[in-house]
Amino acid sequence: MTEATERLYYRDSFLREFDAQVISCEKEGERWKVVLDRTAFYPTSGGQPHDTGKLGDVPVIEVAGAEQKVVHYASAAVPVGPVRGTIDWPRRIDHMQQHTGQHLLSAAFIELFGFQTVSFHLGKEISTIDLDSPAVIPKQLEESERRVNEVIFEDKPVVIRFGTAEELIEAGIRKKVEREGILRAIEVEGFDRQPCGGTHLERTGQAGLLLIRKLERRRDQCRVDFVCGFRALAAARSDFSTLTQAAALLSCGLGEVPAVLGKLIEERRVQHGAVKRLEERLAEHEARALLASQPSTGALRVISSALEEATPSYLGLLAAKLVAEANVVALLASRASRHVVFAQTKGLPHDMGALLRDTLKQFGGKGGGAKDFAQGSVVDAAKAADVVAHAKKMFAS
C-alpha cells in the first residue's frame, strides 16, 4: 500500500518549486493520475480550489485528495522516478490572499457581533462566507470590513500551529473539531486561531485589502461576498472605471452620479406614466376606427390589422379594447416588433391559442396562449401581414 503523501504546503505555503519522486502514473480517461512521495500542490479541500502548475514539462490540471494521498491529474504521462514540480504562483498567491482574508473576516464577525461562519467558498472571481445569522445590516458589514483592514494594515504574523484537538481548544481556537491526532491550525496574533489545512499568507499585510461586495439573505443565514489582494485592486479599478463612464454619459462629477441618476429615473417614471395614458387614448381611438372600417362576418366581427409600428404591450392593449365589444375576434400584428396577438370576446367558441400556434407554424414563428387571448412573434417582419390574412381566412363564411 502506498504511503501517505508528504504535504509540503502544510509548513511552507510559499514553496513554488520542489523535488519529488513519482510513485505511480496511471492513465484515467484522457488524463493521467500521478502520485508523488511529497508535494507542494494543494488539492481541492475546505472550500479552497486546487493548485495548478507542472510536473517537469507536463501541465497539472487538477489536484485531489484520496485518503492519505494527493493525486495529481496531468495532461500527459509523467515517468516514475525523480521529478521537479512547479506551482502556478499567480493562482496560489491569489488563493492565499482570499483564504487568509476569509479567516480575518470570519474572526471579525465573531469579535464584533458573535456571528459564526458555517461555510466558505473560494470562487474564480468572488469568495463567500455564510454566516449563521438571519439578518446582517449594512453598518455591521462596514464595521467588520474596517476591522479586517485594520488587522491587515497592522501586518500581523500568520503562524502555523500543530497540536491535538484538546491542545488547540486550550489555545483558544474559534471552531470545535472532532478529528483525532495532530491537527494544523492557523493563528493571527492576538486576533484569530482556526483549524485549517489550506494555504495562507505569512503576514496579514500580504492580503493588501479586503472589500465586501454583496450581502445575500438565505433562509436563516446570510451570505457575504468579498475579495482580497489583487482581486480587491481589480474590483476597485473596475468600479472606478464604471463610475467614470457613468459620470461622462451623465455629464456630471463622480460624486453627483447617484443624484443625477435619481433625477433621471423620476423623470422617466413620470414620462412613462404619460406615455401609458396617451397609449390608452390612442388604443381607444384606433379600436373605434378599426371597428367602424371592417364589416362583420354574420354575427361575428373579425377585426384584422397589420400595424407598421406597435410595441407588444400596445398591441395587447389594442386587442383588449377591440374584444371588449360583443362578438369580436381581433387578429393583430406589428411589422416593427414582429409581434402577433389573437384575441376574442370572452364566451366565443373559438380557440385563439390553437389558432395562433397553427398559423405561426406555417410562417416560421412561435407563440401560444389561452382560449381567449394568445400572442407570439414571427422571425420575418414582412410576414406579419401574411399571418393576419391567413388567420382571417379561417373565419370566412
What would you note in describing this structure?
The protein has 397 residues and is of the alpha+beta class. It has three domains: 82 residues, Elongation Factor Tu (Ef-tu), domain 3; 155 residues, Threonyl-trna Synthetase, Chain A, domain 2 (Threonyl-tRNA Synthetase, Chain A, domain 2, 2-Layer Sandwich); 121 residues, Diaminopimelate Epimerase, Chain A, domain 1, CATH 3.10.310. The chain has eight helices and 20 strands. The strands form five sheets. It has a six-stranded antiparallel β-barrel. A five-stranded mixed sheet has the order 16-17-18-20-19, with helices on both faces. The chain has a four-stranded antiparallel sheet with strand order 9-10-15-14. Strand 17 and strand 18 form a beta hairpin. The chain is elongated. The model has no long low-confidence stretch (mean pLDDT 91).
Strand content: 25-35%
Numbering strands along the chain, what is their spatial order in the largest sheet?
A: 2-3-7-6-5-8
Report the order of strands and helices: EEEEEEEEHEEHEHEEEEHHEHEEHEEH
Instruction: Write down the Rg.
Output: 33 Å
On the 0 to 100 scale, the average pLDDT is 91
Report low-confidence residues grouped into runs of 5 or more: none
Helix content: 25-40%
Given this structure, which CATH class of the largest domain is correct?
Answer: Alpha Beta
CATH topology of the largest domain: Threonyl-tRNA Synthetase, Chain A, domain 2
